[in-house]
C-alpha cells in the first residue's frame, strides 16, 4: 500500500466521518446517497435521504412507484434530473438485473445518471472493489497535494487528476480509503481556510510547500449568470391554492408551479381580489439567476376561474407537500399560506 493511501486510511478510522446514515449499507443505499450528494452538502442531504429510504427502502418499491411520488420527495433538493434518472435506473435494475446492482464499471456507467465518479463510489463503498472517486472534495485534495496550477476544468487537468487518483488507489481497504479522501476534502482540505496542520498528508503537499493551498484549485473564468424574471400568481380559494404542471422543458419539467402572470386572461384576472405582493425571491441556479415576484390573490368561487383542467389543479396546503415542486414554490406555500 502506498504511503498516501495508508495515511488517509489510518486518519479516516480515527478522525473521519463514520456515522453517516448510508455508510456500510447496500449498493442501493450508497447509490441514492451518492446521487443526492452531487453538488449538495451532506447536512442538506441527510434528512432528504432518510425520508427517501423510509418510503423507498429497496429498489423494487422505487421502481414500481410513480415519478410524481419520487419528485415529491425530491422537492427542494434541486437538480431534478437526478430524481428522474434515479427512477429510470431503478426500473432498469429491477427488469434487466433482477433487482441487483451490477458490480462492474462498464455496466454501472451505462445506467442513467451514473457517471464515472458515482460508479467508482458504488464499487468501493458498497462492494469493497477498486473504484476511483473524483468528486469536488477529492479533486481539491489531489490538486493541492500534487500542486496542479492549471484550471481544474481543463481537459488535460481532468486527465491528470484521474491518473493520479488511479495511482493513489490502495490494494485493499477500498471503502475506508474512498471515504477517507472524501472526508479529508470536506473536513480539512476545505475550499477556504484549510486545516493543513491536521492533515495526514501535509508533509508532501506541494501546494502547502508553495503556499498556494488557498489559490488552487480554480476554474477558468466563467461568464456571468443569465438573469430571468418570473411573475407568479399565488391564487387561493378558501383552503385551496391553484397549481399548474410545468410542461415545458428545463430544470422544472413536470414539476408543479404557480400560474404565471401572462397565462391568465384579462377576464380571469378581473375575477381575482389582490391581497398582497410577496417579497421578491432571488433563486440562484448553476447557470442562471431567477428573480421571482409573486402576487397573492384570492377568489371566492374558484369554479368561475377558467383553467386548463388537464394541467392545472386546486389543492390544499396539506396535499401540496405530496407533489413535486421546486424549492421557491415550497417555501412560498410554507411561509405565506
Can you walk me through this structure?
The protein is α+β, with helices and mostly antiparallel strands. The protein has 2 domains: 3-210, Hypothetical protein, domain 2 (Endonuclease III, domain 1, Orthogonal Bundle); 226-336, Nucleoside Triphosphate Pyrophosphohydrolase (Alpha-Beta Complex), CATH 3.90.79. 43% of the residues lie in helices and 13% in strands. It has 15 helices and 7 strands. The chain has helices at residues 3-15, 27-36, 42-55, 59-63, 67-74, 81-96, 105-109, 116-127, 136-146, 155-168, 174-187, 206-210, 266-270, 317-320, 327-336; strands at 226-237, 240-245, 256-257, 273-277, 281-284, 288-298, 312-316. Strands 1, 2, 3, 4, 5, 6 and 7 form a 7-stranded mixed beta sheet that branches. α2 (27-36) packs antiparallel against α8 and α8 (116-127) packs across α11. The N and C termini lie far apart (59 Å).
What's this model, at a glance?
The protein is of the alpha+beta class and 337 residues long. The protein is built from 15 helices and 7 strands. It folds into 2 domains: 3-210, Hypothetical protein, domain 2 (Endonuclease III, domain 1, Orthogonal Bundle); 226-336, Nucleoside Triphosphate Pyrophosphohydrolase (Alpha-Beta Complex).
Amino acid at each position: 500500500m502506498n504511503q498516501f493511501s495508508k495515511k488517509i486510511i489510518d486518519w479516516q478510522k480515527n478522525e473521519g466521518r463514520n456515522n453517516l446514515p448510508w455508510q456500510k449499507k447496500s449498493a442501493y443505499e450508497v447509490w441514492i446517497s451518492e446521487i443526492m450528494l452531487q453538488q449538495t452538502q451532506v447536512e442538506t442531504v441527510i434528512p432528504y435521504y432518510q425520508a427517501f429510504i423510509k418510503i423507498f427502502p429497496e429498489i423494487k418499491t422505487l421502481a414500481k412507484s410513480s415519478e410524481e411520488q419520487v419528485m415529491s420527495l425530491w422537492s427542494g433538493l434541486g437538480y431534478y434530473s437526478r430524481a428522474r434518472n434515479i427512477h429510470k435506473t431503478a426500473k432498469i435494475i429491477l427488469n434487466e438485473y433482477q433487482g441487483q446492482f451490477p458490480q462492474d464499471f462498464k455496466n454501472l456507467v451505462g445506467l442513467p445518471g451514473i457517471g464515472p465518479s458515482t460508479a467508482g463510489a458504488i464499487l468501493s463503498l458498497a462492494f469493497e472493489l477498486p473504484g476511483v472517486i473524483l468528486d469536488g472534495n477529492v479533486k481539491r485534495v489531489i490538486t493541492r497535494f500534487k500542486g496542479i496550477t492549471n484550471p481544474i476544468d481543463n481537459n488535460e487537468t481532468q486527465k491528470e487528476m484521474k491518473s493520479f487518483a488511479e495511482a493513489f488507489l490502495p490494494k485493499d481497504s477500498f471503502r475506508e480509503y474512498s471515504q477517507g479522501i472524501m472526508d479529508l476534502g470536506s473536513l480539512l482540505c476545505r475550499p477556504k481556510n484549510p486545516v493543513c496542520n491536521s492533515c495526514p498528508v501535509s508533509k508532501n503537499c506541494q501546494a502547502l510547500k508553495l503556499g498556494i493551498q488557498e489559490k488552487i484549485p480554480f476554474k477558468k473564468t466563467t461568464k456571468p449568470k443569465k438573469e430571468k424574471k418570473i411573475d407568479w400568481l399565488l391564487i387561493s380559494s378558501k383552503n385551496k391554492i391553484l397549481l399548474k404542471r410545468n410542461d415545458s422543458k428545463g430544470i422544472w419539467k413536470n414539476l408543479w408551479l404557480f400560474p404565471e402572470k401572462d397565462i391568465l386572461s384579462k377576464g380571469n384576472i378581473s375575477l381575482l381580489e389582490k391581497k398582497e405582493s410577496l417579497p421578491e425571491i432571488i433563486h440562484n441556479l448553476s447557470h442562471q439567476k431567477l428573480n421571482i415576484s409573486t402576487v397573492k390573490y384570492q377568489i371566492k368561487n374558484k369554479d368561475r376561474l377558467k383553467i386548463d383542467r388537464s394541467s392545472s389543479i386546486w389543492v390544499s396546503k396539506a396535499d401540496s407537500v405530496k407533489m413535486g415542486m421546486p424549492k421557491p414554490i415550497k417555501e412560498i406555500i410554507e411561509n405565506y399560506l
